[in-house]
């Protein structure tokens, strides 16, 4: 008999990549009744919109920034379309969840006491972070019976931190990793549950690689959830002494990335 296993996602309304993860996950996950809800937090944490725009301009440069900006404007318009205008298509994570009859909650601060009270009423076994934009504090980490897990696109403990797919390409790796690990008070620091490598394809852009690894990650997450439900997970140490950490790329980092023959888009 299948065990009862309630979990919730905490994520962000990223217009380009996160929805791809959930499209794949909802398509393959065989126990949708387990999902108590998807919590959507503001993108890039508590960063202001102006600060986010500046960061994206520095990262993409003028030409790619215009291309990304046009896609973002299109997303903002289509994400608000009612069902009858969408012709069966989904353009945002909210729309996808509504179409799949998955509860959606918007939370400005996922560590706020009021939000924790809401999660407590969901009677959760697990919280799953997918590109969650805020650091989980101890009360949130300790709330579900089995704690919290995160998906990170590197072979931890290597490439902890921001935008790991970028840095693995930057450093000439032949493959990128996907790690599902427990969350503790550190950054990408909890015990490793599952790991897998995905080869980087010749000529592949960073954006294409991220999209592809989102789909890989969704299938991998379904596997990890099955192991946790059935108490088959075998955690491995995430060795701090072997860790490397990378912050968000600077303009100079992106220039060097392009000189090495890589593309962002």
* Number of H/I helices: 9
| Secondary-structure class | alpha/beta
The H/E string reads EHEHHHEHEHEEHEEHEH
Q: Tally the structural domains.
A: 1
Shape type: globular
| Cα-atom radius of gyration | 18 Å
**The biggest beta sheet, please?**
7 strands, mixed
Number of distinct beta strands: 9
What are the SSEs and their pairings?
Elements: E1 7-12, H1 18-28, E2 35-41, H2 49-78, H3 83-86, H4 93-99, E3 104-106, H5 113-121, E4 126-129, H6 138-141, E5 148-152, E6 160-161, H7 164-170, E7 175-182, E8 192-199, H8 206-229, E9 245-246, H9 251-259
Parallel strand pairs: 1-2, 1-4, 2-3, 4-5, 6-9
Antiparallel strand pairs: 5-7, 7-8
In short:
The protein is of the alpha/beta class. It is built from nine helices and nine strands.
Give an account of the 3D structure.
The protein is of the alpha/beta class. The chain has a single domain (7-259), classed as Rossmann fold. It has 9 helices and 9 strands. The protein has helices at residues 18-28, 49-78, 83-86, 93-99, 113-121, 138-141, 164-170, 206-229, 251-259; strands spanning 7-12, 35-41, 104-106, 126-129, 148-152, 160-161, 175-182, 192-199, 245-246. It has a 7-stranded mixed sheet. Strands 6-9 form a two-stranded parallel sheet. The longest helix has 30 residues, at 49-78. The radius of gyration is 18 Å and the shape is globular.
């Amino acid at each position: 008999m299948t065990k009862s296993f309630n979990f919730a996602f905490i994520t962000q309304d990223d217009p380009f990549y996160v929805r791809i993860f959930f499209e794949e996950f909802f398509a393959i996950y065989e126990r949708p009744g387990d999902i108590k809800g998807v919590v959507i937090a503001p993108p890039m944490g508590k960063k202001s919109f102006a600060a986010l725009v500046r960061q994206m301009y520095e990262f993409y440069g003028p030409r790619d920034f215009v291309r990304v900006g046009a896609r973002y404007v299109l997303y903002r318009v289509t994400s608000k379309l009612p069902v009858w205008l969408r012709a069966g298509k989904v353009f945002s994570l909210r729309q996808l969840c509504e179409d799949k009859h998955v509860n959606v909650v918007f939370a400005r601060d996922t560590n706020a006491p009021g939000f924790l009270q809401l999660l407590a009423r969901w009677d959760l076994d697990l919280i799953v972070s997918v590109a969650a934009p805020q650091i989980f504090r101890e009360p949130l980490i300790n709330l579900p019976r089995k704690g919290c897990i995160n998906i990170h696109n590197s072979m931890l403990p290597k490439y902890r931190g921001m935008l790991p797919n970028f840095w693995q390409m930057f450093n000439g790796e032949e493959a990128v990793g996907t790690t599902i690990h427990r969350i503790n008070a550190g950054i990408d620091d909890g015990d490793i549950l599952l790991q897998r490598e995905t080869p980087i394809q010749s000529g592949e852009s960073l954006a294409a690689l991220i999209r592809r690894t989102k789909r890989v990650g969704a299938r991998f997450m379904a596997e990890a959830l099955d192991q946790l439900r059935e108490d088959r997970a075998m955690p491995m140490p995430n060795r701090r002494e072997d860790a490397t950490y990378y912050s968000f790329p600077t303009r100079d980092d992106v220039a060097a990335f392009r000189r090495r023959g890589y593309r962002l888009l």
